Amino acid sequence: MQYTAEFLTKIYRDLYSVRVFEEKQVELYALGKVPGHIHSGIGEEGSCTGVMATRKEGDFVKISHRPVGAGLLAGTPLETMFAELMGRVGGNALGLGGVLHMTSLEKGMVGFSGTLGCDAPVAVGAGLTIQMNGTDNVSYVFYGDGTSNRGPVHEAMNLAAIWKLPVLFVCNNNQYAISTPTSFSSPVPNPGADRAAGYGMPSRVADGTDPLSVYEAAQELVDYIRAGNGPAVLECKMCRMRGHFEGDQQKYRDLSVVEQWKDQDCVAKMEKYLIDNEVLTAEEIAAIRGEVAAKMDAAIALAEQSPEPTPEDLYRNLYAE
Amino acid sequence: MSFELVMPRAGLTMVEGTISSWLVAEGAAVKKGDPIMEFENEKNTIEFNSTGDGILHITAQEGDVVAVGAPIGLLAEDQAEYDALCIAPAAAAPAPVEAPAAVSEAPAVAVVQETAAADTGRVRATGLAKKIARQKGVDLAKVQGTGPNRRIIAQDVLDYLEAQKNIPAAAPAAAVADDVVTEIQMTGIRKAIAKNMYASLQEMAQCTAAVEVDVTELLAYRQKLVDNQEYLGCKVTVNDLLAMATVKMLQKHPTANATFDGKTLFVHSAVNLSVAVAAEVGLMVPVVKNCERMSLVQLHNAMTDVAIRARDQKLKGGEQAGGTFTISNVGMFPIDWSTPIINPPQVAILGFGRAVKKPAVVGDEVKVRSMMHVFLTFDHRVFDGLEVGRILADMQKLLENPELITV
Amino acid sequence: MQMTYLQAIGDALKEEMRRDDKILIFGEDVAEFGNIFGVTRGMLEEFGPQRVRNTSISETAIIGAALGAAVTGLRPVAELMYADFTMVAFSELFHCVPKWRFMNGAEYKMPLVVRCAMGSSFGAGSEHSNCVESLFMHSPGMTIICPTTPYDAKGLLKSAIRSDNPILFCEHKQLYQTKGDVPEGDYTIPIGVADIKRPGKDVTVIAVGLMVRRALEAAEMLEKEGISVEVIDPRTLVPFDKETVFNSIRKTHHVVIAEESNKTAGIGAELAAMIQEEMYDELDGPISRVAALDIPMPYNITLEKHVIPDAAKIAQAVRAQVERWK
After folding, report:
1. Which domains does chain C have, with CATH numbers?
2. Which residue of B127, B147, B154 is in closest CB contact with C325?
3. Which residues of C are catalytic?
4. Which of B43, C102, B126, C6 has the alpha carbon at shortest distance from A96?
């Protein structure tokens, strides 16, 4: 496929932004500035970057818990995300929702359930709204290989299929659900794509370390969905580079396999592609990197100025007026 | 609609008040703000100003103990309403009445047959029954429970009150009543004293030590000051000198000029002396603040002022609070020594007995000297004997060398 | 005019759907069949297949999709058939629906009503007879409504549909065919306001769902014995109308709580704890609970009746409140 330099630059900027967000998340966590636990998505940015490049105004998206930085691709303000991440009142949920709930309904982000899989039907509901409104929008829902075995995902696929709803199920197959390898938890090699047939949906498998490969597969399915044909499944293959959570010693897996995947790092590969094809020079890439890092730091500084929520804030959002 | 007058809360710890006197008569027209009643709380007599306009119908009588917030009277809007209030059955008028009454122990009045406390010694009563008992001043141990498990229910308390009302004031069956018991309710100040004194002994490890001091010189010194009273402008008392000596001592022993909450000892730089005053109504302990800044004359004037007002029950709110140490002089009575009770949260109290001439050994000779006991009750949680010994030694030194007191 | 509880609910749905085309209903067998109890009969014909949708047997997806539709602009009324099936979508109903606004922020509005049929119905057995309200009282953010008359059902369902907060609307199966007066035209009943179904002065009976009728029967019996019973129907369990209940207790000083679900950790457990905390000084005796035995619902109808409180059991509890020691 032929791409404009502008498009490729945007892809790179998006990809690198999610990467930096994930790195900053790890950094802030290590400094003790993030409550609870985080799930680093470093190495898995290719999938969301490629898929989100097919998005248009009015689409809905439900990201997954890895990488949470994908929220920025939907346009969630960075300082809001960081404030929510750090449990500050400037977050979208006043710092009461947390790392898994850095959302923005205004930007079409449909929220997230901490219980994995509960939100697949929610994306179906967003698809229902699109259908009722009669637009050609899409509801994107990201989930993992582990979550692919949960009932709600299957119920959601079935309901979306019988109602022909515009939903793209994106399975980020990073090969591990905490310690459980996909080869153990799924009886089929492609826990996302192979299940589509059961619900009469088309599917594609893409290289999750290559945002362009993801983009191409996603675009094909999204065109199909926008045409009113109903839901589809995209599976992106990659590897979880870090532990399930920060501090996970990963005794359960052979880390030499992870080492091999380091050659497949989506950011490094994309940079090589851009230089090889003379889209960007090394200096231009360095400039983009500097720019992204500066933006991220500025957002963190702003978020850190946001105060802690008070006991009064607890009751502010429980009920709508 | 009639307007209800209730016992006001006048002070942090006030839970009930005793009606001392109604200043206006039953049926009088009163205006909001008019002084209409006086009541006593723990240690003060306070004027009650009407909280509304109308014709007064009194429901709580002089001597009644009334809980804060409980009704004491009603204000009728007009004469018709007033008349209606007066003929209303007593039960409808919320009058918490438990006036002192002579009660005979004849079986006819013994409501106490089988009470809720009978089996276990613990009174079983419902929340509502307890509330009514609290408001009306009923001792639940005397009430018979008729609820499930013989629990005292609200109706039992009301029945008890009704029965009490029907008891004739004079004992009807003198033949069987050879012992007449007069019940005197602990009210206002007396009740507060009872509570405080009991609490003091419950909560502290109190211990008393005494020393006999030769006050011959002190009395002579005081006589000299009396002889020169025109120059001083007042007649200095022995008590003034004892107080002044105490202030001097406390400046040397600051841990005695302190308050204690069970965990932390709060040592005060100001000497705020609580002065025990025996008033007819009960023990009053007004506080003379910042004694450490006073001359003997100033101290005399300040102590005289509070003592007079204490006896006349004219102390203002707060004048009995904030003391850091108490002195109690019982020298006007034929008392040599006593074991005074500490005024919490203070940590010690110093008492002075009467001065008596008696043979004393001076050098190696027996001489007639004026002797007085000085006794210190201290909280053993705070002090040990060492400090107490030093305190009494210093008191002895000061009293036997009176010129030290005033320099 | 007189109508059944079932008709009143159907009318509320239809009138609201005519008023606002963002409202749609979906669930198992709600379209052609008109729901297994007949509540949605005729609605497919009037509103078409876009707004009256059958689903697969997928309770989890029904609730999840209703949530997703609600936050993105529709006003779904989802149906779960039997209240027992809330358990199939428990995570969604316990975690997501009530808490998402709190977790995701003030942008999120959830105009979502989940309808379900609760309670015993003559031998439905232990998986089709449950009363589940107390489980959801434990999830802050969920509004729980249990109407007991046609009038209340219609007015409260309309308020529920117009609310921007998620609502669990519990209809009682045994009440569907009961009749009552319902005024002509549009009206709503505010959420969170209890109704004194019968005034009295000696004992307050707080009754929920079917137990309201049973408590009224008991009150009738007790009146002949000279005991005056005040029957309060909270109508909304969350938010709970404390004031109406407290005012009643200030008058009667005695409380009996009657519910159809199991006694342990039930509605009565919560209400009794709350009342004794806040109203201890007004109580002239312990609060009593009349509830189902702590046993799964038996299939045998005689035993079903034995397990669930009837008017006689409620009356007995009331008598015990005012009994005196002899």
Report:
1. 2-181 (3.40.50.970), 195-322 (3.40.50.920)
2. B147
3. 128
4. C102
